[in-house]
Write a structure and sequence with these properties.
Elements (H helix, E strand, L loop, with lengths): L10 E3 L7 E6 L2 E5 L3 E7 L10 E11 L7 E7 L2 E9 L2 E5 L4 E4 L4 E5 L4 E6 L7 E10 L10 E5 L4 E4 L2 E7 L1 E2 L2 E2 L8 E8 L6 E4 L5 E8 L2 E3 L2 E3 L4 E5 L4 E6 L3 E8 L6 E4 L2 E3 L2 H12 L33
Antiparallel strand pairs: 1-26, 2-23, 3-4, 4-5, 5-12, 6-11, 7-10, 7-12, 8-9, 8-11, 10-13, 14-15, 15-18, 16-17, 18-25, 19-24, 20-23, 20-25, 21-22, 21-24, 26-27
Family: Belongs to the pirin family.
Keywords: Iron, Metal-binding
Protein name: Pirin family protein
Length: 320
């Protein structure tokens, strides 16, 4: 997934292990993605930069694309991160510079590790389902692994957990002993929770050393007493051993968590680096056709990189 902002800002992100339990309801902003898809961008936002190693969250749909091309994101580069494709409805065709060609369907994990450099495209297939609904997420790679070789994983089957009346699909990490096959480089978790309408809260066990956030995908639910509607993200902080969940209607939530990311990382456009010099070099390499490889088969030109800010990259803190 690409950040298509023509004037992306630089963001300096880091962890905060001292944060205790909290309720911080984050409001996303609408961003145009490709030709016909709008997303709600929830991370990074003015109030919060990261949740564990999760550093980017887009939620889109449900969109009726029966008579539309759907998602059309041209080839673009990534550096220093992992991308996670997660669908509730629809299909996305992934191509990358490794030669991967994979259709990702609902509740299948598409996991791309950019490592030192990769490029990819994402599009709705020519013949596609009527609805498109899902989330695209990034995970920042720690310094020890950010220069690893690029890779792509597709996991059509993921572990399912049933805990205290909650039905969950483990996307990354582990929940109640059920571990996702997806590769991770820091302690983190991502789980898709399906809740049936109820009158009493259900308790989800948590890791107290993790910080968490809950993204409402569909329906209406109370998360630790806070009402969430689709497209809203509630940051929960650290120090919790369980999380009360009450479904006002049948609902689905995406729970993201992990150990607070202790390193500072600089995010700009589709790159996660450590310095402005590194970001400038990555942009120059992409524009010159170096290092990131080629994506074959996409019907259209690749994305051009935005211009660098005239005053240089200006770092900003994790939360403000």
């Amino acid at each position: 997934m690409s950040n298509l902002d023509l004037k992306p800002t630089a963001t300096l992100c880091s962890g905060d292990a001292s944060a205790g339990p909290t309720h911080d309801l984050l409001t996303g902003r609408t961003v145009q993605l490709g030709e016909s898809t709008q997303v709600r961008r929830l991370l990074p936002t003015l109030g919060r930069r990261m949740v564990g190693a999760w550093c980017f969250v887009d939620h889109y749909g449900p969109d009726d694309i029966a008579d539309e091309p759907g998602m059309q994101v041209p080839p673009h580069p990534h550096l220093g991160l992992q991308t996670v494709s997660w669908l509730h409805d629809g299909e996305v065709l992934h191509r990358d510079s490794l030669g991967s060609l994979q259709t990702i369907r609902p509740r299948e994990l598409g996991l791309m590790t950019s490592g030192r450099a990769i490029s990819h495209s994402e599009e709705s297939p020519r013949e596609h389902p009527r609805l498109l609904h899902g989330a695209q997420l990034w995970v920042a790679l720690p310094d020890a692994h950010r220069h690893t070789a690029p890779a792509f994983e597709h996991h059509p089957e993921l572990p399912i957990v049933d805990i205290a009346g909650l039905h969950g699909t483990v996307i990354l990490g582990s929940v109640d002993g059920a571990a996702s096959p997806g590769t991770t480089y820091t302690p983190l978790v991502g789980v898709d929770l399906a809740l049936t309408e109820s009158t009493t809260p259900r308790l989800l066990p948590l890791e107290p050393e993790f910080e968490y956030a809950a993204l409402a995908i569909s329906g209406s639910a109370d998360v630790d007493g806070v009402r969430l509607e689709p497209g809203s993200l509630l940051y929960l902080g650290c120090g919790r051993r369980q999380l009360p969940l009450l479904a006002r209607t049948d609902a689905t939530l995406l729970l993201l968590g992990g150990e607070p990311f202790e390193e500072q990382v600089l995010m700009w456009w589709n790159f996660v680096g450590r310095s402005s010099e590194e970001i400038v070099q990555a942009r120059e390499d992409w524009e010159k056709g170096l290092r990131f490889g080629d994506v074959h088969g996409y019907d259209g030109a690749r994305l051009r990189a935005p211009e660098m800010p005239a005053v240089g990259l200006k770092p900003r803190g994790r939360a403000r």
